[in-house]
Amino acid sequence: MAQSEQEILEGLADIINEETGLEQDAVALDKSFTEDLDIDSLSMMTIVVNAEEKFGVRIPDEEVKNLTTVRDAVDYIAKAQA
User: Fold this and answer.
1) How far apart are CA 16 and CA 79, in angstroms?
2) pLDDT digits (tens, 9 = 90+) for 63-82
3) Domain range spanning residue 11?
4) Contacts for 24-29: CB closer than 8 Å, 24+ residues apart
5) In the beta sheet, which residues pair with residue 32?
6) pLDDT per residue over 21-33, tens digit each?
7) Residues 34-69: pLDDT tens digits?
8) Hey, is 20 helix, strand or coil?
9) Number of domains the chain contains
10) What's 42's domain CATH number?
């Protein structure tokens, strides 16, 4: 079942918090993973794997490079669930 944008954002914030220790409040749709949240490529891959499990979606490696902001990831997951 597809989740709302807010549910996906909260789930991603939980995953990012577990991986990086960043507060969930810091994870907002307009934030860049690398520039604003300071997430490196290794952490990003862990976040992607955890997001795939949590949301029941597949995010191919070639798509990960296109997920530069939190909104990109939320939109991708929402579309993949539809």
Assistant:
1) 20
2) 999 999 999 999 999 999 98
3) 5-81
4) 27/70, 28/70, 29/69, 29/70, 29/71, 29/74
5) 69
6) 999 999 999 999 9
7) 999 999 999 999 999 999 999 999 999 999 999 999
8) helix
9) 1
10) 1.10.1200.10
